[in-house]
Amino acid sequence: MEKHSSDGISFTAGNWPVDADRATLLFIHGSGETGLLWENQVAALAPDYNTIAVDLPGHGDSDGPGLDTIAGYAAAVMAFVDKTGLANLVPCGLSIGGAIVQQLLLEHADRLRAGILVSTGARLRVMPQIFETIEKDYQQFVAMSRMFAASPHTPAAVLEPLLQVTARCNPSVTAGDFRACDRFDVMARLGEIARPVLIISGADDQLTPPKYSDFLEKNIAGAIRCRIPEAGHVVPVEKPEAVNQAIRGFLERISKP
Ligand code: COA
After folding, report:
1. Angle between the 128-136 and 138-148 helix axes, to the nearest 10 degrees?
2. What pLDDT is stored for residue 38 in this prediction?
3. Residues with CB under 6 A from ligand 1
4. Residue 189 half-sphere exposure, CB side, CA atoms within 13 Å?
5. How far apart are the C-alpha atoms of 202 and 210, rounded to whole Å?
6. How many CB atoms lie within 10 A of CB 83?
7. How remote is the CA of residue 63 from the centroid of ligand 1, in Å?
8. How many A from CA of 193 to the centre of ligand 1?
9. What strands, in cross-sheet order, belong to the sheet with 24-28?
10. Considering only CA atoms, which residue is closest to atom 36 of ligand 1?
11. How far apart are CA 114 and CA 24, in angstroms?
């Protein structure tokens, strides 16, 4: 896996340059995170698909500033897609990343093959305690994430690399991400989505509970649902094999004539 950069956006690619004949999985991380969230997917799915994990503006090695709207982040992702000339696009996002994928499905469907929504929802109100803690004591917020982000079944060590990434993120960027989530609401627009969609949810997710995925499943025509037991919000690191299997199955299914 190699790190690259295009116009200030840093990304990890399983293969670079991409193979134009394959589907391109474009992975988008959660609030205060980086493309590292998807390292298992980028590596394991690379033999069969183009796999790319971006750092959103202001995150990881990408240039700033961070943003505070989902529409702004979606526009930044599309600018990256235009610059790099990616096609056969299947964006796959977690939490805020999943909100960005919904925005892309609504505003740029003609550019997408399909979309994958992981640990997310059509509305993402944020607990006031999250904003207060980020403002008062950012490292306390990181410690708090340790309690909320994973299933009780997930060994604590699995989460550590992600928490270190969040700890290094500029607190104002993380706060901007949560403001973007808090304002996001496309509950009334899901019926407009007309591309194949896979929804992945962890049974023990406390931040975007399975109820949010139930709503996505019910309101996106033809959506396919994958429920993963003993997993929380950061299911791609908690249950990488199950997530990869779900993504493979979905891509095989939508590639059948
Ligand atoms: N899909 C389906 N239903 C949803 C939804 C979604 N994406 N978002 C909210 N709802 C439902 C809620 O379950 C609730 O239903 P209820 O009245 O039957 O209990 C209703 O819509 C209103 O909820 P909400 O808009 O969230 O407002 P609230 O004032 O009730 O709660 C919070 C606010 C912040 C306490 C709540 O959103 C929450 O606990 N969020 C999860 C924790 C968090 O901060 N996550 C971070 C996400 S990035």
Report:
1. 140
2. 98
3. 95, 121-127, 130, 181, 207-208, 211-212, 215
4. 13
5. 7
6. 12
7. 32
8. 22
9. 2-6, 9-13, 50-54, 24-28, 89-94, 115-118, 197-202, 224-228
10. 125
11. 10
Residue 141: how many CA atoms within 13 Å on its side-chain side?
25
Mean pLDDT of the chain: 97
Residues in the chain: 257
Minimum-distance ligand 1 atom for the alpha carbon of 212? 1
What pTM does this model have?
0.98
Per-residue pLDDT at 257 exceeds 80: no
The pLDDT of residue 152: 97
Query: Ligand 1 centroid vs 191 CA: distance in angstroms?
Result: 20
Looking at residue 2, its pLDDT comes to 82
Cα(104) to ligand 1 centroid in Å equals 22
Percent of the chain scored above 90 by pLDDT? 97
* Residue 29 confidence (pLDDT): 98
Per-residue pLDDT reduced to its tens digit, 192-233: 999 999 999 999 999 999 999 999 999 999 999 999 999 999
Pick the residue whose CA is nearest to atom 24 on ligand 1: 125
User: How distant, in Å, are the alpha carbons of 58, 148, 193, 198, 203 from that of 233?
Assistant: 22, 8, 24, 16, 9
Nearest CA to ligand 1 atom 9: 123
The mean per-residue pLDDT over the stretch 79-85 comes to 97
d(CA 172, CA 43): 31
The pLDDT of residue 105: 98
What is the atom index within ligand 1 of the atom nearest the CA of 124? 47
Distance 13 CA to ligand 1 centre (A): 35
